[in-house]
TrEMBL record, chain A:
One of its GO terms (cellular component) is oligosaccharyltransferase complex. It comes from Pichia sorbitophila (strain ATCC MYA-4447 / BCRC 22081 / CBS 7064 / NBRC 10061 / NRRL Y-12695) (Hybrid yeast). Keywords: Endoplasmic reticulum, Glycoprotein, Glycosyltransferase, Magnesium, Manganese, Membrane, Metal-binding, Transferase, Transmembrane, Transmembrane helix. It is an enzyme of class 2 (transferase). It comes from the Eukaryota. This is Dolichyl-diphosphooligosaccharide--protein glycosyltransferase subunit STT3. Its EC number is 2.4.99.18.
Automatic annotation (TrEMBL), chain B:
It is a multi-pass membrane protein. Residues 1-20 form the signal peptide. It comes from Pichia sorbitophila (strain ATCC MYA-4447 / BCRC 22081 / CBS 7064 / NBRC 10061 / NRRL Y-12695). This is Piso0_000121 protein. Keywords: Endoplasmic reticulum, Membrane, Signal, Transmembrane, Transmembrane helix. The gene is Piso0_000121. One of its GO terms (biological process) is protein N-linked glycosylation via asparagine. SUPFAM superfamilies: Thioredoxin-like (SSF52833). Belongs to the OST3/OST6 family. The keyword Transport does not apply. The lineage of its organism: Eukaryota, Fungi, Dikarya, Ascomycota, Saccharomycotina. It is found in: Endoplasmic reticulum membrane. The chain crosses the membrane at residues 188-205, 217-236, 270-287, 299-320.
From TrEMBL, chain C:
InterPro entries: DDOST_48_kDa_subunit (IPR005013), OST48_MD (IPR055459), OST48_N (IPR055457). GO terms for biological process: protein N-linked glycosylation via asparagine. This is Dolichyl-diphosphooligosaccharide--protein glycosyltransferase subunit WBP1. The keyword Transit peptide does not apply. The chain crosses the membrane at residues 412-435. It is a single-pass type I membrane protein. Subunit of the oligosaccharyl transferase (OST) complex that catalyzes the initial transfer of a defined glycan (Glc(3)Man(9)GlcNAc(2) in eukaryotes) from the lipid carrier dolichol-pyrophosphate to an asparagine residue within an Asn-X-Ser/Thr consensus motif in nascent polypeptide chains, the first step in protein N-glycosylation. N-glycosylation occurs cotranslationally and the complex associates with the Sec61 complex at the channel-forming translocon complex that mediates protein translocation across the endoplasmic reticulum (ER). Residues 283-435 form the OST48 middle domain. Component of the oligosaccharyltransferase (OST) complex. The keyword Nucleus does not apply. Belongs to the DDOST 48 kDa subunit family. Pfam families: OST48_MD, OST48_N.
Amino acid sequence: MVTSKPQEKLFGVRVETIRSLLRVIIFISIAGAAISSRLFSVIRYESIIHEFDPWFNFRATKYLVTHSFYDFLNWFDDRTWYPLGRVTGGTLYPGLMVTSGVIWHILREKLALPVDIRNICVMLAPAFSGLTAIATYFLTKEMKDSNAGLLAAIFMGIAPGYISRSVAGSYDNEAISITLLMATFYFWIKAMKLGSIYFATLTALFYFYMVSAWGGYVFITNIIPLHVFVLLIMGRYSHRLYTAYSTWYALGTLASMQIPFVGFLPIRSNDHMAALGVFGLLQLFSFGFYVKSKVTGKQFRNFLVFSSIFVSFLGVSALFALTALGWIAPWTGRFYSLWDTNYAKIHIPIIASVSEHQPTAWPAFFFDTNMLIWLFPAGVYLCFQELRDEHVFIIIYSVLGSYFAGVMVRLMLTLTPIICVSAAIALSKMFDVYMNLVDVLKSNGEDNSEETGSGKKSKAKRPSTNDKLFSIVSKLAVLLSFAFYLVYFVLHCTWVTSNAYSSPSVVLASRGPDGSSSIIDDYREAYYWLRMNTPEDAKVMAWWDYGYQIGGMADRTTLVDNNTWNNTHIATVGKAMCSSEEVAYDILKKHDVDYVLVIFGGLLGYSGDDLNKFLWMVRISEGIWPEEVHERDFFSDKGLYKVDGEASKTMKDSLMYKMSYYRFTDLFGGRDGIDRVRNQAIPLSQSPKLNVLDEAFTTQNWLVRIYKVKDLDNVGRDLHSATKFDESANDMKRKRIIKKPALDLRE
Amino acid sequence: MLKIRSILLALVCLASIVSAGLTSAELNSLVHANGDKVLQLTDDIFEPILQGRREHSIVVLLSSSSPQINCVLCREFEPEFHIVGNSWIKDHPNGFEDSDEEEKKQNIYFVHAELANSKRFYTELQINSIPKVLFFPPSEAKSPNAWKKEISEYQFYAGDHKRLLISWLQQETGHTFNIYIPVNYSKIAVNAVITFIGALVVKRFSTQVCALLTSRLLWSGLSIVTILLFTSGYMFNQIRGVPYVLEQEGGNVQYFAPGQQNQFAVETQVISFIYGILSVLFVVLIKKLPEIKYSSVRLFTVILTSTLIFIIFSILLIIFGGKGLGYPYRFLSS
Amino acid sequence: MIGQRSFIFSILLAIVYILGIASAESRQLDKFQVLVKYDAELYNPGQASSGTPETTNLIKELQQRGYELSYESYESENTTLFLEGEPKYDHLVLLPSSSRTSGSQKTFNQRELLKFINTNGNILVVGDSDSFLPDAVRLLLNEIGIFPSPKGYKYVDHFNTKKGVPQITNSNIVNKHVLPELPSKGISYKGSSALLSNNKLAFPIIKGTSTSFTTNKFEDTVTEDSIWSYGEQGFLAVGFQALNNARLVWLGSGSLVNNEILDWVFQAKKVLKLQFVQHYHNDRPQFINPKTYRIKDNIFYTVGISEYVNGRLAPYKVDNDKEKLQIEFTMLDPYQRINLKPLGSGSSKGDNTLDTYIYYANFTIPDRHGIFTLDLDYKLNGLGYISDKRVVNVRHLANDEYKRSWEIPNSWFYVASASLVVVGWFFFIVNFLYISNTNIAKKTV
């Protein structure tokens, strides 16, 4: 600390005031940096909603602001999951939409600023990232001091691991949830330290906001009890802990049950049982302490042994019994896949198919946090050195967060804040030590008792000029090197944000051979075509990845979408895609499908297309119809995934294959077509023929292909023979002999 | 054991010249010569086992556990196959004996052909991909190479391999199969002993154990090591079962997998080591070095540590840059 | 009384639904345009007596009906059925031919004929055992599943003959909608027969007797190869109605031509029209055809159906149990399948002419939310098709539509215990703070 006394003055102004002023300025610049580094995509492309899930959130928000909150809450959505529909109001986390809805209303009615709801949605995530930085500041301040807090805030502001989910346009639940996560944790630490009902209530309030915004609230539901549990084991029970936790748990649980989607889960799902268990344990502890204060030590020991055995036996058997009776839901599939990493692979292909659920390789960690990743263990070590109650929290969060992030790429997001906090603690400690120039600046004659921190050595002997020089040089060396690293860190973050996380994925950018960049806008071209050229109630079938986008951009009814709640329905779509035309046509007709949409990257070289996801469609439908769909049938004889001449018959007959390569060879002027994604040749001779679909639209780069499902034949033929009849136009040769047809008996 | 086996084999081969094909009884003796009831196929015995007339059927697993091939499915499937094979022999130790009146019941023998041991067998069958499970039904052996044609192949589907394999075998043979998962007594015993000794140690050295359990050093070490492992992709290795390193043709060893989404197991070790060293150096820099009394020594060590951090960080960047992506930043050019 | 009310509403708010018969109706005042394709060797339209008596009879019938007849020979090179993509004729009569080829293959072939059907044109094909059907016609018939025997094959029946000629009687009639009965008790039949595929849209009108067969060898032993059809699998007259209600009739001989069949094929009878479809919530009949229902609502569903009789619309009343109208309430699978009940005659235009018959169904929506279809699908061979789909949403209960806790007796126990806890807690606090805490109070004092 430069100053130790509050009344010190600089230029006639109290140092404390200057400090607050500086802090505010720093905050404003941090928020500015955080927001502006998230604007790459808006500047480069336009103010557009990104990716997949945000399109649903955007659509829901539009519904909210055009209808009432009551309508929103009871929204039955007939535009998705045709013909099942979706009870959308009861199956979403409304926090995000309500937040932007409230902002929209305030801007409109209180400030008379009629901002387009889209712009609010686009800018919500960057705006909240500024708040996250502030929440992180307060959390870190509780751990060490405000210096560490400021460092953590700036790290949080620009760490790519968080930016990846909060660039402008990434209008997803995570956009506001991380803010709420940090705020909840801050208030929890505060409540736990002070034993304050006020702060515990605030914790519960933010917890409620978090529950309303993101399914990841379960992380809080488990980590706070774990924190308490570890503290209990460490023998750090206190009434402060009791007050904080009991208040939070009671209020938070009641509040969280007000969200329709959560409902009775907090008392019925195993995911939430840890919190309940710790709540019970705390009551026992406090009862134990009460007893202890009343009886002798010996009696208390006996009491402790018997009651603990009895209680634990009771608890465990009750848990088992309730689960067996079905009163408590077993762990959800996604939760299983976190612990038993093979579970998803075997049981739930739909979870395994999502690329966000894949494990994380080490480059992703470094990519997302750069040098913080190796400052992180150092920070944890420093926490161990002090090990106050709140440091235990950091340690638990670090270990659990690392595990989760290692198992699922997506959870990088929850790890990033704690990395920032830990690294900031470590780095600020370094600055404490090496920026302390007191001993250097102080003249020789002064009393060395004033010196603190690193000045211990000077107690032994008075610092000579040489010592001072050495000291300055060593400090400068360290400071300069770390200043260099920090500059590099900023460069890295900017580079990563600009290159990896700023693509809307709805609009693609490509670079020509001459280095010129061009924009590939096929998705919007196709969706706009659907919007303008199809009847308003047309049903569009596509793989579930595109459900939200079709709903949001084309405004057409979809069969399945990214809210993968009904595995069977998704499998039905998968089956239609991987079956032969005849089987598929029955499915299409049964579901009143008018248009089928596929993504085909073969011409452009876009690897995220449907043929590359095709095996997942096969696997998911195999899960439901193991008799009819076999993954093995889609591989060539050599067991390879082939689309060229060696492709298996099932593969060539599948609707997906036919839709992808229909008329593809036409582009190559009589030669075999080349698929640029799979680098395989599509032989001219096996160019697929379509009987049950008509090509309706293909975008400029063939990225999206839309097919219209043919009507039933007017004269009652199957569509295969109808096509044959139409094609026979070209050969007018006649059979001279009329042969008796081979017919079944007429019923 | 090996000797007995080879003698038996020699006998068997001799017999094979006469009858061109092992009889069920001969196979039985072969099977029981070993603890594992699944026969290991080698290049010298596949012909006597498979060629010629036979009244029993044979199920062959073709797989490889060699790290070069890195066949994940093989590793997954092999133990399951052995369990099914052993369970069958356990139910029918001597096959269906002649006294059994049910004539139609044919014996089944389970054979495992490891690629390394039976290269000739693989070339004879022109196998291009593994794993495969082949079923050789009873044969009249009209021609010497008849066994190569009378094959039906198991299709690998997702699910519980044991159950799928059994349902396939039931289709092929009409028998019913039971599964006995062998109880590993030695493991249980070892566990029991360890637990016992553990309990004993805890009882005897309760104060020390207590000290250990409450030791800050131990817990901090544990936590930091776990964090280091997880943040350097340990779970990736566990889930994906990636190879340790990639040995290319020509003896070159590749240590770092290209691409950001991929890695080899050795990378976890290298990277966690680098992170660990960097962290340790950093802690030393802020905790230990300021306590050195002599300023010259302090200067020297501080400079040394900083330089080390710089160099190791540079190495990290070089490794990271080598993963592709066109990452532009390096401190030192490699 | 609900039924009564709906009846009134249906009359007031009837919506006219124009189905496939629209085009035929709109030109009702004009003369129907009919093209007769003939073979110059067999018939000359200039000379009334040049053809067979059956042909002459047919032409006379057509003229009597007031159709505007055009004649074109099969050899004609400039036959076109369409003008600017619109059909030039309403009906087409195809007489037998002496040759298998026809003149203008570009404009008169099986695809043009199919297109004619697809644009609501009706076709009457008259066959004959001694002449050909032009390839275009034959291929068209084959495409819709009718396979007439080639030239030379004759319908033979040694058991039911009169003067050596096979006889057919009313018992040979399969479809009474098209042909209620033969003009005379039995008619002598000299002609060909056809095989029929299992196309649901094609149906026999007259079948062969069980002892009949069709062959081209009359002297030698009959072999498998020389027989086209056996017994009741040989059909002498076949009708066909496409999904757009266009009709086609193939007759094995000109002798089968009669008024009933002509009426049918030229859309003069058995043409149905869906006048209106209405559905509403039982309690809210003022909101017709709402988009959304709630689970377990009661739906009242009515339709009005007219039949075209003697040039005007008349109520269509089902008197046959097998032909009842059904409504399905479907989401992937039918959740309800209900016979519509007759309500009585009504008017579709709001005046007093009773031109439509009203049917209704009243049912409860299942306890399942989703997007349901009210599917009326009435397709009987010989009758005009009626098909109507109404998509409605069935939503779940809103958050304030459940019973409140105090309305459920089971919950009283829990409500009581919860309030007891609250009260108890309050007294505990009071006790803790002010009553039992005297010691501390003393100390602080």
